[in-house]
Amino acid sequence: MFENIVLSERQQRLWALLKFLIIFNLLAIPLQLIIFFRVNLYSLALIERAQVTFFLDLFGVDYLVYDVPYGEGFIPAIDLNNHVLAIGEACTAIRSLLAFSALVIASPRSWRSKKKAVIFLPIIYFANIIRIATLAFVSLSIPSFFDLFHIIVWREGLVFLILILWVYWFNKPSRA
């Protein structure tokens, strides 16, 4: 039915962009469902808290760990001299990992190439652990800058990291 349709080069690029955007937005649905249904990511947050406290121990920082009430449940927290870092769903790496995965899957590359992009997931996860650990150090040393680092530097920094890794992967020549 559509075999005889010939698209110009510009139309082909626009069609490829439209397909990318549609697939990317469809792949964003799991993330939206996690947010909408308030999926309990306590276990992931607990693992991330343990990894952050490894860095705190490494630098000899005194802290307490406990859970704080949140909604109908609890979330892991780290108390640093009465400044509590609560590690909620939004603090886990799940959003970043899903966003990067959606970018890769929506990209017009071979599945073989897409499978190779999995090597970037640990980098994103580790960056999130470093994000939480540096926020702990900022809250201890210059607490007045905590919101700046939390809301602007690291939130936007993770988005930038995801985009940089995706562009690097996308532009890397595929080897057969």
Radius of gyration from the alpha-carbon trace, in angstroms: 20 Å
Q: Biggest sheet, in brief?
A: 3 strands, antiparallel
Q: Indicate the percent of residues in helices.
A: 55-70%
Shape: elongated
Following the backbone from N to C, one meets helices and strands in this order, namely HHHEEEHHHH
Strand order of the largest sheet: 1-2-3
Provide key terms for this protein.
3 strands, 176 residues, mainly alpha, 7 helices, 3-stranded antiparallel beta sheet
What do these coordinates show?
The chain is mainly alpha-helical and 176 residues long. It has a domain at 14-44 and 90-171. Helices cover 62% and strands 11% of the residues. It contains 7 helices and 3 strands; from the N terminus they run H-H-H-E-E-E-H-H-H-H. The chain has a 3-stranded antiparallel β-sheet. A hairpin with a 2-residue loop joins strand 1 (64-70) and strand 2 (73-80). Helix 1 runs antiparallel to helix 4 (94-106) and helix 6 (121-141) runs antiparallel to helix 7 (146-171). It is elongated. The two termini are 33 Å apart. The mean pLDDT is 92.
